[in-house]
Amino acid sequence: MRVLLVEDDPELGRRLGDRLRTADYAVDLAATAQEARHWPDLDKVAAIILDLGLPDGNGIELLREWRAQRVGCPILILTARGSWQDKVEGLNAGADDFVVKPVRFEELQARLNALSRRHLGKRHSTLEVNGLRLDPVGRAVDNRGEPVALSRKEFGLLHLFMRRAGQVLAQGDILEDLYDMEAERELNTVEVLVGRLRRKIGRERITTLRGMGYRFEK
């Protein structure tokens, strides 16, 4: 899942980005309101973590602009401002959650997971498709009751496939979801990853559509 982190503190941005990547998020970092405002592919972002105290503007105004432009992904405010007035203003401007720094990473991750479930209209985070069960919180997969051991990228790919079961995913879409914008990415990376995943969960679950991409069968 790709996350856009809008944070002007370089050290905090680096540390938080590293923790999120360890939890298998693909993280892009914007250090200013201007950079975030003109982010090239917000439609590919699953969630935004937004600081309010940016060097070139107020995060609240940026949030209002995004919502006016119909940016629909969950937006979590992460800020040192903790007054009730700030919280009310942020939530009224369109934020889905408001977290005050400092916060334990485990809580931040739990809130991101909750926002993702809510955005997808699902009460529970566990995904089940045709006998295959994936728990993104416990990071466990089983195939008709038998545990399946996956690497981090294999788990991320399966999570994406199961979230969008029945849909055709182009290789570019898969790369956008699994890797940061700055990461070195090649299309054959997806082919290799899909091949490894097929061997572990069954080839019949993933259909290749020539010139189009892949479809995870329901």
Q: What can you see in these coordinates?
A:
This protein is an alpha/beta fold and 218 residues long. The chain has two domains: 2-119, Response regulator (Rossmann fold, 3-Layer(aba) Sandwich), CATH 3.40.50; 127-216, Orthogonal Bundle (Arc Repressor Mutant, subunit A). The chain is built from eight helices and 14 strands. The strands form four sheets. The protein has a five-stranded parallel β-sheet with strand order 2-1-3-6-7, sandwiched between helices. A four-stranded antiparallel β-sheet has the order 8-9-10-11, covered by helices on one side. The mean pLDDT is 89.
Structural class of the helix and strand makeup? alpha/beta
Number of alpha- plus pi-helical segments? 8
User: Using only CA atoms, what is the Rg?
Assistant: 18 Å
Provide mean pLDDT, rounded: 89
The amount of helix comes to 25-40%
What is the element string, with H for helices and E for strands?
EHEHEEEHEHEHEEEEHEHHEE
In quaternary terms, these chains amount to single chain
Q: How many strand units?
A: 14
Low-confidence segments = none
Query: What is the fold named in CATH at topology level of the largest domain?
Result: Rossmann fold
Give the gist of this structure:
The chain is α/β, with parallel strands linked by helices and 218 residues long.
Strand and helix map with partners:
Blueprint: E1 2-6, H1 10-22, E2 26-30, H2 33-37, E3 47-50, E4 53-54, E5 57-58, H3 59-68, E6 75-79, H4 84-92, E7 97-100, H5 105-119, E8 127-129, E9 132-135, E10 140-143, E11 146-147, H6 152-163, E12 168-169, H7 171-178, H8 187-201, E13 206-209, E14 213-216
Parallel strand pairs: 1-2, 1-3, 3-6, 6-7
Antiparallel strand pairs: 4-5, 8-9, 9-10, 10-11, 12-14, 13-14
Helix pairs in contact: 6-8
